[in-house]
Amino acid sequence: MSASSGPAPGPVAVVGAGLVGLGWVVVWTRAGHPVRVVDTDQAALDRAGETIAALWSDVETRPVPDTVTLTTDLAAAVSDVVHVQECVVEDATVKAEVFAAIAAAAPATAVIASSTSALVPSSFTASVPGRERTLVAHPFNPPHLHTAVELVPAPWTGAEAMAATRHLLEDAGMEPIELAAEIDGFVVNRLQSALIHEAFRLVGSGVVDATDVDRAVRGALAPRWLTLGVMETIDLNAPGGIEDYVQRYGPMYARLAREQREPVDWQQVLDAGLAADRAAVLPREDLDARRRWRDGRLAALRRFLDGGSATS
Ligand SMILES: NC(=O)c1ccc[n+]([C@@H]2O[C@H](COP(=O)([O-])OP(=O)(O)OC[C@H]3O[C@@H](n4cnc5c(N)ncnc54)[C@H](O)[C@@H]3O)[C@@H](O)[C@H]2O)c1
């Protein structure tokens, strides 16, 4: 994963020591980058070492290298980095201030990337000096257990900044999804939105219950999508490939799409029984334990997909 030849990976700064920021620390550290972690809250930094060690143990058996430093001094932390990954609260005003402070102190060559889940980059980078080196690099939670990361340019983001970030992420074992332009929801949430919406429609209409919706995803869609994705799945699912698939099944999907156009009232579906059904299957006080179970399963899957490299 880390570059075994060529120059040593340059320092990276992670600004915001919450869950997402500390996941990024694991990603960059595994790739051999010295990492400077910055937070305005000393208590968050005091907790960070323990959390990083716990996340690290999901993917590595060796101890955390001593290349991670923790500080409240943003300007010093970013002064010689090749990349800054902003992971502060999801607020465009705060992000604009943090980007301005980073831009004032980081080398002009460093890319400044935001982890934002739902803000388009133009909403907080318009006034940043050197804004052509700003973009969104949106990870999935927790970042050290997912390879996907969405690279989203603002209208003023330079091709060099996109390419440099893509290379840095690929060297760190990530698989960037590069958007040509910013769009609300980026790619993953737009895909997810279509599927969750249809799940609510089916449950709300009483055709199927929530447990069986999850069975449909886990037992039919997810295994193929994990192996191939959506487009390659359909390319293989008709004898003559994707053109044959479109000929055979296009009319059916067009019919379904017309039926699926109306938005569904999610709250109404919750109130009509979905909330009670979920609480019966998973009591609300068990949510945290189940989240830890999920992360353990994701870590095991990651190790399997990496060919067992994390445990060997
Ligand atoms: N939680 C998710 O599932 C998820 C997934 C992908 C991306 N994201 C995005 O990542 C970002 C961080 O999310 P999180 O869940 O880790 O949040 P969080 O609240 O856990 O952590 C935010 C951290 O930023 C620090 N902070 C706030 N202002 C700061 C500043 N001016 N300078 C330095 N540090 C500052 C806070 O003290 C806190 O430690 C958000 O933009 C979020 O949308 C979240």
What descriptors fit this protein?
12 helices; binds nicotinamide-adenine-dinucleotide; 2 domains; Rossmann fold; 8-stranded mixed beta sheet; N-(1-d-carboxylethyl)-l-norvaline Dehydrogenase, domain 2; alpha/beta; 312 residues; single chain
Task: Explain the overall architecture.
This protein is α/β, with parallel strands linked by helices. It has two domains: 12-178, Rossmann fold (3-Layer(aba) Sandwich), CATH 3.40.50.720; 188-281, N-(1-d-carboxylethyl)-l-norvaline Dehydrogenase, domain 2, CATH 1.10.1040. The chain has helices spanning 19-30, 42-59, 74-78, 92-105, 122-125, 159-171, 188-204, 210-228, 230-236, 242-259, 266-281, 287-305, and strands spanning 12-15, 35-38, 68-71, 83-86, 111-114, 134-139, 148-153, 175-178. Strands 3-2-1-4-5-6-7-8 form an eight-stranded mixed β-sheet, with helices on both faces. α1 crosses α2 (42-59), α7 crosses α11 and α9 packs across α10. The longest helix has 19 residues, at 210-228. The radius of gyration is 22 Å and the shape is globular. The protein starts with 11 loop residues before the first strand and ends in a 7-residue tail after the last helix. The mean pLDDT is 95.
